[in-house]
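Polyphosphate kinase
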Amino acid sequence: MSEESIFINRELSWLDFNRRVLVLGKDKNVPLAEQLKFLAIYGSNLDEFFMVRVGSLQERANLMRGKKEKRENKTNMTAEEQLAAIMPKTAQLQEDCDKYYAKSLENLAACGYRKVDFDKLSKEDEHFWKKYFQSELFPILSPQIVDSRHPFPFLRNKEIYLGVLLHEKHTSEHTLGIVPISSQMERMHFVRKDNETCFALTEELVLHYAALIFGKENVQEKCLFRVTRNADIDVKEGMMDHDIDYREIMADLLKRRRKLAAVRLQVIPAAPQVAQLLCSRLELTHKRVFVQKSPLDLSFFYKLTSRMESDGHPELFYTPARPMLPPQDYDLAAEVEKHDVLLSYPYQSIRPFIAMLKKAAQDPDVISIKMTLYRMARESQIVQALVEAAENGKEVVALVELRARFDEQNNIDWSKHLEEAGCTVIYGFDDYKVHSKLTLITKKSAHGYSYITQIGTGNYNEKTSELYTDYSFITADLGIGEEASNVFQNLAVQKLTEESEKMLVAPLRFKSVLLDEMDRVINAARLGRPASMVLKNNSISDRDIILKLEEASCAGVRIDMIVRGICCVRAGVPGKTENLHIRSLVGRYLEHGRIYSFYDGVNTRIYIASGDFLTRNTECRVEVGVRVEDPVLKEKLDSILRLQLSDNVNAREMQPDGSYQKVKPAPGEPLVNSQMGMYDLLRDDWTARDKAPAPASVAETPKPQPVKAPEKPAAPAKAAPQPARPAEPEEQPAQPEKAAPAPMPIVVTESRPRRTGLLGRLLERFLK
């Protein structure tokens, strides 16, 4: 591929993203217990990558072998070529993970938590652990022999096994011994000794005493191993028989997922002959074997950090922070009747939204509640509110997406519960996942119908609302309510929404609208106006959007992108994307919200949406978004974007070669932690409008200064949030650190009320 290409391969970009997660596992600015969690997140991310992305590529490569294959539309790589590029990059990541893991053990030991090294046991410890193994573990182990009389067993996805090469007593042949180390066993064992907490892993204990299972003279080679299997199930095949219940199809596919082909083999320590035997049985090449020094599954770190927390070590964790609650008498529905509302998670609580649903369930004027459900909490108050509404005689329509990967069973269970309560449950399209975050509450009065519409960037999930940064827009606007009603009617009859004025509705009215907005900005730049765009999302891979970004850059449009994960466009390519600036934010929270801002030199138009710039979002899913027109909310989104573009604590900036470089403050420049700064930015947000005087027209000022936000959150709390799944940084140690560039302005021209609190003071200062 040409060095001047603006494209980056999707899968390789994802691996770079996971490197940014991994680097947090050794970042000295991250407390030790949180570093351990990031190491665990890195491992679970990689598992999912192999199960889904590598599994899908492998299927495609197998199907197309010997045929002319359709190449990937950005870097022109075949499935085989992508797989060939993925494996060495993964191997390098594993080497880094091993180093970071070893360092974490040193740091843990310094804090009084020591991992048991079974290769260096004292006689006293040897006696203790041998006795423990014989009394507690040996009776429940189920060893197996693989030879001509005993078939090779099915190896479960992601389960850890002991593998042993055995020497036959009366022949020169070797056989394979396998011991499942069941996930049902307690994986960690804690022992207090010499004022230290020692912890041991069950699989390492079994490995150490393998000779007690198979006989010392028989064991020639031993290791622990773990198989990762393809989990990319296909719903279409199951849908061939339309007489079968859709839930039954999904349940059957979930069973099939457990038995799909192996795509990766992890081994510790090196055991060449055992690995060779396993590869021959699993039909894997040696390139899919990863010999590592760190444990095969790092999720045990979650239990360890829970123990550290219960032992009372607050200094090893992030400073506690809880979502901010509104005043006790705050009524979200009443506020929405007066003006649009934008909630920002996890800084503001999801409770007012849940309370609004519960109130609607009791309100005699409410005739229906309609909602799309993609990922729900295990104990979902939101679902319970829908159940209560149905039991009270309201029409409740829930579109449950059963194909939310790895949440399928949870969604199947909730769909049954909703049906039993009398809700109407629909499952969306055969060919499109419904990834929308849309709620519609319909009221009927003497004056006719009225609506409260909620459009969000994140799931209706109480747990992730405290871990992911998301935005929830709630309005009583009649036009938006009517458009949302039309979307639900179309979903019910498997029809795509083709027309909307204020809402974005993928796949027909999402990408086209955003491309039109980009064209508007490009035309402004060509007329000599100071045009700019700020685009915040999780990922970008859509070729049409990437090419439009190139066109905008060449037209002189300043483009700032905040892209957390996959980024298939390269910034700063001479003559192509010189005006494109890309950064990835890394911190305690998962950046999940999507904000799209377009400035044509006169007006700014801002959208929030459930969809990213991935092709699957723009073309293959039903997504929803909305143009935010309330001037106060536009200012809020404007301030959030400026704050994130000023971040010099969590940010890493893409270089022209596609690598990422950590942004650090210039000498004398204050630290700007955008995630923690949000607490102060939103501190008075619940009541700001009540305190503000009547709006007054204010002349536009085109060059506001970047927001400088304090680092520490000021919300009291009892426990630190867990950094759910990827939150990420990435390092390029060979390159010098550089200061954050000053972002281009985001200008809102509508009349603005005066605001109170830090948000108001900052905005007033910008407008002077």
